[in-house]
Amino acid sequence: MSGRPVKHSLTLSGHRTSVSLEDAFWDAFREIAAARGTGLNTLAAEIDAARGDVGLASAIRVFILNEIRSSQKT
Fold it and tell me: Do 8 and 26 contact (CB within 8 A), yes or no?
């Protein structure tokens, strides 16, 4: 597992964009999308729409952290 960010392409609203996340975040992002029964592009588009002026990679990391925290409360 690499501690360095790895770049992947996503499609948001029909436009390709690249996002760099560490392997652990990519793994968690895929797991969350699968648990919700949705694809990465769809989930990333939801995060993108709600992120305001925060960078997309940061918004995804915070989303993952919040998901983990909320799942630990149940």
Answer: yes
CA 45, CA 24: separation in Å to the nearest integer? Answer: 20
pTM of the complete model: 0.91
pLDDT digits (tens, 9 = 90+) for 8-56: 999 998 999 999 999 999 999 999 999 999 999 999 999 999 999 999 9
CB contact set of 10 (below 8 Å; sequence gap of 6+): 16, 17, 18, 19, 40, 41, 44
Give the whole-angstrom CA distance, residue 60 versus residue 48: 8
- How do strand 6-12 and strand 15-21 relate by DSSP bridges? antiparallel
Look up the CATH number of domain 6-73.
1.10.3990.20
